[in-house]
Specification:
Elements (H helix, E strand, L loop, with lengths): L14 H12 L12 H14 L3 H22 L13 H4 L5 E2 L1 E5 L5 E6 L5 H7 L2 H26 L5 E6 L7 H8 L2 H13 L4 E7 L6 H8 L6 H4 E3 L5 H4 L21 E2 L14 H4 L3 E5 L4 E8 L4 E9 L2 E9 L7 H7 L6 E10 L5 E7 L3 E8 L8 E10 L5 E4 L5 E4 L5 H6 L1
Parallel strand pairs: 3-4, 4-5, 5-6
Antiparallel strand pairs: 1-7, 2-3, 8-15, 9-14, 10-13, 10-15, 11-12, 11-14, 15-16, 16-17
InterPro entries: CRAL-TRIO_dom, CRAL-TRIO_dom_sf, CRAL-TRIO_domain, Ctg-1-like_C, GOLD_dom_sf
Organism: Acrobeloides nanus
Protein name: CRAL-TRIO domain-containing protein
């Protein structure tokens, strides 16, 4: 059962909501950009906590903790300086990995903007084979940022709390073994947590799946056991008899004709399944020289990279045999840390995140990327098997640092480094 909120959708923020928002601000230990720092954005984190707790202290603490983690992501992805990227320009829609429906300019009775798509053409397998999981995460953050800005505009114009009411037509959606693995492995629940709870809580609410087949209830029940309180209220299932529910607070003029409404202008661009020869291939010049890292359950391994001057480029290439957490972290001192001790006590929370801490799989598509080292200090390429209690993970990795003169050095887990030729440069692979 849902908790009682201090402000509901379609309402101006109550005095109690504003008090809670200001309390959360006092608990922030991360910088918050003016472009993001408004009461509605912070209240969304409060509202998410209100779903799960009754105690005021617990609500404030959870909202502040979740928001602090999100602010770290915002900083390292530079989301506040990012120009607004509409769906049509986002690679995940531009390359037709996902079906695309535009956010409509009208709302329901609770001030929630409408967003319709269809799932008949979606293919989890195609996304997994066609894009690096780090890219898929990044593009979805761009997607949610565009959605946030549309909702912020609605809130600025109306003065009332808004969200996206997401209505998904499940007609023709078919399950396959790959989809079931995606669900049963926890990957779907991870992405749901990452976007709908940890980083953009209450932004997309509710999510209504209409025209569902009976088999959808099987993965739904499985996912529900892994999700926080309020999941069933947020993700709602309807069979073919959904129109009466929609018409309770929607005009039939704002429902697409494909769902039985009277708006023929609302369209969805379908996803396209790519041929096998268009899937990305591993970088053959790096495959044979990757360093093997064994990750037992609950363990962390990292490669330290000391950077003496600003403007260097840190790049990496790795493959995995399953999901692992990966990120790049920074600390200013260049002190040598005892290796055996640091692996047991390495704390990501105490260091600056400079590349997002995401759960990635580089089994089907190997991961390759780079960042600019904007200040001298020690950088850590960190791998973590925190989500597994029983299964080992194996990573094969290469990490390189290119200085301002164009010299490239490879860095190893034991702290050693060696100069390499341009032919083996990861930056060269990225630019080709």
């Amino acid at each position: 059962m849902s908790r009682v909120f201090t402000t509901n959708f379609g309402e101006s923020l109550s005095s109690e909501s504003k008090k809670r928002v200001n309390e959360v601000r006092l608990h922030l230990n991360q910088p918050i950009h003016p472009n993001f720092n408004n009461d509605f954005n912070i209240y969304r984190f409060v509202m998410n906590a209100e779903r799960q707790y009754k105690n005021r202290k617990e609500i404030i603490e959870m909202a502040a903790k979740t928001l602090n983690n999100h602010l770290r992501i915002r900083k390292c992805l530079e989301l506040d300086e990012l120009p607004d990227i509409p769906f049509a320009e986002n690679p995940i829609f531009k390359h037709r990995y996902l079906p695309c429906g535009e956010i409509q300019p009208f709302t329901d009775k609770l001030n929630r903007l409408l967003w319709y798509i269809e799932y008949a053409t979606i293919s989890v397998e195609d996304i997994s084979h066609g894009a690096k999981s780090s890219e898929a995460c990044k593009y979805q953050f761009w997607q949610f940022e565009h959605m946030l800005r549309r909702v912020n505009k609605q809130e600025e114009e109306s003065g009332k709390l808004s969200s996206l009411r997401h209505i998904i037509d499940m007609t023709g959606y078919e399950i396959n073994p790959f989809t079931m693995i995606f669900v049963s492995s926890g990957t779907l629940s991870y992405y749901s947590q990452l976007f709908h709870y940890e980083n953009y809580p209450e932004l997309v609410y509710p999510i209504e799946m209409v025209n569902i087949a009976k088999w959808v209830h099987v993965p739904y029940r499985l996912i529900k056991t892994m999700m926080p309180a309020g999941f069933t209220d947020r993700f709602r299932l309807h069979d073919g008899n959904f129109m009466e529910t929609l018409l309770e607070d929607l005009s039939i003029e704002h429902i697409p004709s494909t769902l039985g409404g009277k708006n023929a202008d609302i369209k969805c661009i379908p996803a396209i399944k790519k041929p096998l020869n268009e899937y990305p291939k591993p970088a053959s010049q790096h495959i044979g020289s990757l360093e093997a890292i064994h990750l037992p359950p609950r363990k962390t391994k990292f490669l330290p990279i000391d950077v003496k001057t600003e403007g260097c480029k840190l790049s990496w290439y790795f493959s995995t045999d399953g999901d692992v957490y990966f990120g790049i972290f920074y600390e200013p001192q260049l002190e040598i840390i005892e290796k055996s001790k640091s692996e047991k006590e390495f704390e990501t929370d105490s260091k600056e995140m400079v590349y997002p801490w995401w759960k990635l799989s580089a089994k089907l598509v190997h991961d390759i990327d780079s960042i600019e080292c904007k200040k001298p200090g020690r950088y850590y390429a960190v791998f973590h098997n925190s989500h597994s209690w029983l299964q080992n993970r194996n990573v094969k990795v290469m990490v390189q640092l290119t200085d301002s003169d164009g010299n490239t050095f490879r860095h190893y887990q034991d702290g050693a480094r060696e100069k390499i030729s341009d032919d083996n440069s990861i930056l060269r692979s990225l630019s080709s």
